[in-house]
Amino acid sequence: MSLQAVGVLGTGKYVPERVLTNHDLENMVDTNDEWIVTRTGIRERRIASPEQASSDLAYEASKIALNKAGIAPEEIDLIIVATITPDMSFPSTACILQDKLGAKKAAAFDLSAACSGFIYSLANATNFIATGTYKYALVVGAECLSKITDYTDRNTCILFGDGAGAVVLGPVAEGRGFKSFELGADGTGGDLLKIAGGGSRCPASPQSLEGKQHFIYMAGAEVFKFAVRIMGSAAEDALRKAGIAKSEVDLLVPHQANIRIIQSALQRLDLSEDKCMINLDKYGNVSAASIPIALAEADEEGRVKEGDCIVLVGFGGGLTWGASVLIW
Ligand code: ACO
C-alpha cells in the first residue's frame, strides 16, 4: 500500500491577555528577575482568566488554523488535543472543542504525554491520514498550567504559562510533509514530574488538598539532565530515520522549557541560534502547547518557507520524548 504524504495546511496560536512578569513573581515568592532569566531564559508568561479553560484557548487557536488552511470545521475527520490540563476528567477536551467548532463528523480524543503530547498527537494523526482512514485532522496542544501551579513554590511557579497552538493536517504533494517520527518513553522516571492527586490512586480529598497533591511536582535538576540528553538524541534519531543531514535543517522548533536545554540541543545538532525558534522569554513553558505555539509564530513571522526542513523536538513528564522531521 502506498502512503499518502501528510503535511501542515494551516497553523494558529492563542495566548491569554494577562501577562505575569518575573517582577510580578518577585512579589509572590523569594526569587528575582536576574535568577529566572539566567537559569531559564524566561521573562514573562501568559495567564488564563478564571473563566478560561483549555478548550477555550484551543478553540481560538483552532479557528485561526482552520481559516489559514481554508478548511471548514465540518470537513475535519479527527481532532486530537494534547493536554495535561483538560477542562475536566471527561468528556475529553477534544470532544468539548469538537462541539465548540461544530466539527460534527470528527472523531475526537485527548492524548496524554505531557510536553511531548503534541508530537505524539502529530504522529497519530499523520498515520490516520497517510493510510487513507481520514483526510483532514486538527491537532491541538492546549494548556492552562496556571491552574495546576503552586504559586508559593519558587521551583516551579516561575516556569509555567498558558496558551494553545493548533495545526490542520492533510494530504500534501509527494516529497513534502512529515518524513519521520521518533517517539519514546521511560516510565521509570514517572515520579520526577507529576500531579499525584485527582486520579484513581489518590482521589481528591481534604488530605490531598492539604498535601498540595493537585499541583505540579517536579524534580527540576533530574528532569534537566534527562532533557539535555534526550533533546539532541531524539532529534538526531528523527533526522537519521528521515535520511536527512543535520546541515540540511532550516529551523529547529523545540519544546520551550529552558534556554539552557535548547542551547545544548543546538550544540549537539551543530545549529546556530538563528536556526532555532525561541519564544520562551514571552510565554514560559506551556507544556503540550509550546511546540505548536512556536510553530505558529514561526509561520506568522515568515520564518518557514516552502521546502524548508523543520525539526520538532520535545520532552516531558512520563518521562516521554518525541521528535519529527517535516518538509514545509
Ligand atoms: N529563584 C531563586 N532561586 C531559586 C529558584 C527561584 N525561582 N528556584 C530554585 N532556586 C534555588 C534553589 O533552591 C537552589 O538553591 P539551594 O542551592 O540553596 O538549594 C538553587 O536555586 C539552584 O537550584 P537548581 O535546581 O540547581 O537550579 P537549576 O539551575 O537546575 O535550575 C530549573 C532550576 C530552572 C528548574 C532547572 O532545573 C530546569 O529547568 N529543569 C527542567 C524543568 C523542565 O524543563 N521541566 C519540563 C517539563 S514540564 C512538563 O512536562 C509539564
Automatic annotation (TrEMBL):
Protein's name according to its UniProt entry: Beta-ketoacyl-[acyl-carrier-protein] synthase III
Major place of residence: cytoplasm
Pathway: Lipid metabolism; fatty acid biosynthesis
Coiled-coil stretches noted in the UniProt entry, renumbered to this chain: none
Protein's UniProt keywords contain Nucleotide-binding: no
Subunit structure: Homodimer.
Written domain comment of the UniProt record: The last Arg residue of the ACP-binding site is essential for the weak association between ACP/AcpP and FabH.
Cited PANTHER family: 3-OXOACYL-[ACYL-CARRIER-PROTEIN] SYNTHASE 3, BETA-KETOACYL-[ACYL-CARRIER-PROTEIN] SYNTHASE III
Single GO molecular function: beta-ketoacyl-acyl-carrier-protein synthase III activity
Reactions accelerated catalytically: malonyl-[ACP] + acetyl-CoA + H(+) = 3-oxobutanoyl-[ACP] + CO2 + CoA
Subcellular location: Cytoplasm
Function: Catalyzes the condensation reaction of fatty acid synthesis by the addition to an acyl acceptor of two carbons from malonyl-ACP. Catalyzes the first condensation reaction which initiates fatty acid synthesis and may therefore play a role in governing the total rate of fatty acid production. Possesses both acetoacetyl-ACP synthase and acetyl transacylase activities. Its substrate specificity determines the biosynthesis of branched-chain and/or straight-chain of fatty acids.
Keyword Iron-sulfur set for record: no
CDD domains registered for this protein in UniProt: KAS_III (cd00830)
Region ranges (ACP-binding): 256-260
Family: Belongs to the thiolase-like superfamily. FabH family.
Record NCBIfam families: fabH, PRK09352.1
Keyword line: Acyltransferase, Cytoplasm, Fatty acid biosynthesis, Fatty acid metabolism, Lipid biosynthesis, Lipid metabolism, Multifunctional enzyme, Transferase
EC top class named in words: transferase
